[in-house]
Amino acid sequence: MRSPLPSAREKSPDRNPFHVDQAVGRHSSRRVVVVRVGVTAARPNRPKPLTAGIPIARRRVTTAPSAHTPTEPYVNAISAISSTSSFVVRTAIVRRHELVLLALLLAETFYLSVTLDTQPLIQIQAIWGTVIGWAPQYLRLAIAMAALMLLLGGRGFMVALMTPREHMTTEARLQLVGVHLLAVLTLASISSVVFAAGPSVAARPGLWAAAWSLCVVVTISTWALALFPARHWRDLAIGFRTPIALGAAGGTAVWVVGILSETLWTRLAGYTFSLVAAMLRLVYPDVVSRPEILAVGTSRFRVVIAPDCSGYEGIGLIVAFLGIYLFAFRKDLRFPAALMLLPVGAVSIWLLNAVRIVGLIALGTAGWRQVALGGFHSQAGWLLFNALALTMVVAINRGGYFLKAARVHATTDGSGPDSTTALLGPFVAMLAAATVTSAFSSGFDYLYPLRLVAVTSALWACRGVYRTITWRGSRMAVAIGAATAALWIVTVPLDPSSKSGWPTALHAMTPGVSLVWLACRTAGYVLLIPLVEELAFRGYVMRRLITSDIDSVPIGTFRWLAFLGSSLLFGAFHGALWLQGTIAGMAFGAALVHRRSLGSAVLAHATTNGLIACYVFYTGHWSMWS
Prior knowledge:
Blueprint: E1 18-24, E2 31-37, E3 57-63, H1 71-82, H2 86-92, H3 96-115, H4 119-122, H5 127-133, H6 135-162, H7 170-194, H8 199-203, H9 205-227, H10 230-239, H11 241-260, H12 265-281, E4 287-290, E5 295-298, E6 302-304, H13 312-328, H14 341-365, H15 369-399, H16 419-439, H17 448-461, H18 463-466, H19 475-491, H20 502-508, H21 511-544, H22 560-572, H23 578-595, H24 598-619
Antiparallel strand pairs: 1-2, 2-3, 4-5, 5-6
């Protein structure tokens, strides 16, 4: 019988750079063909392992048993793989352990951050207390260094990071995960004692500090080794030593500058105060201005501009957003012209913050004091940031000045809205309606039904595009949504003062009106918001981070940059709950990738929101209803 695999003489390694290994299971009648992508040299009788610099990518192709020479299955597999790069083949198959370990690290970081308080250590006049008390700063330093390493290393660094040359067994990985979890529990236990700065810690500070540091090192190292083998980390450090060193140095510099810049907040607040006072004098004759305490307003209503209200937070957010955008779409943008977006965005958000303060004073002066101090004060800044970010993205893509080439937007039939408009239009409509209704509320949004009208109208106008999208769900999506709801309920702190006026406002309405309002609020929260946000973040952003032509990327295509980037943007959209939002975004993205269906992501999101709504109705904790 002829050998099922061509010999080295029949297949020249120069003409065909792929290895094909075939194995038949002992207790199975199915044949498994393993295709390895790589550049090899000739070797008698059998293919030679990978020796070039491109990591191995594997694809398993299952074929039915046959008595004939099974050349067609692996030839077809090779033809399919040869049309793309090794990175595309590698990332097309998502390894579950990477996602699980990443989610585990985020969950552990969040738990330690919310349960431990370093303030008692900072107050101790000792070196060890200061060093350990700066633990939250070390996390920010690590994030800055990692971001710059990825930025300087580029695509090659990402490819090398996510494609190890060798793989460990499941048993070895589980052992490392077990050690890691034990180290995390030990770290949490020791931290609870050390951060309390009790008498036992004061008696032996060096011993406790050494134990805490050792637990941190073991926790991080065991997690890294469970993710990838030690040899992979060593090869990565050697092969990319320059971007790693520059990223570490640059991240440290950014971290130091960030700490030093805190002293500039008061000066920025002074500039904001002067601008607000000047704008008020254009409208009101009785402007009250007290520069010594940064109080400004009118004779009927005035505010104090604290450093937190000076605009530095908005500047940081917009610069970070635009920085990520410039890096993600650097191949489509024209540099150095695109760098102008950074100062333009910073100045624009600072001016909008001043306009927000003027609007707040105007509302209070007009007699709407509760509206000014309620919904407008808490929501206007965040909504203005989202509006500016979306406006700049639309201007970049529509204007064409910052693009290397003019972009052609595809439509479904040549006359309807293009796919970009269909995916982002309802989200923009939701933000615009929320800006109007929230700004004119005083803790209770009576005008919430107007949001449903705006969003439903946008969805109806783009309905033709949605017919081309796969909407099937899955039981896995429901399970993911339930787990995300449980995480949200457990981790989001209850704020009795938030939405405390809702019961009073609902009782003040007639039963019919209150029932209609609750029905609209529930429908929007459980049905429309999941649909609109998944269209924007998983339907558009996740594909846009892969290529500028989103119509060429099937929904559900996985790339690490797109997966993490869309999740981080989704988290940023949730404001102070950015960490929970990021984890939820990763969960909904996993549901999308699992079935390659946007319907699965929408179903997971709707399940999460539905369970949270049930929890709110059952417990009466209205602050949980974001």
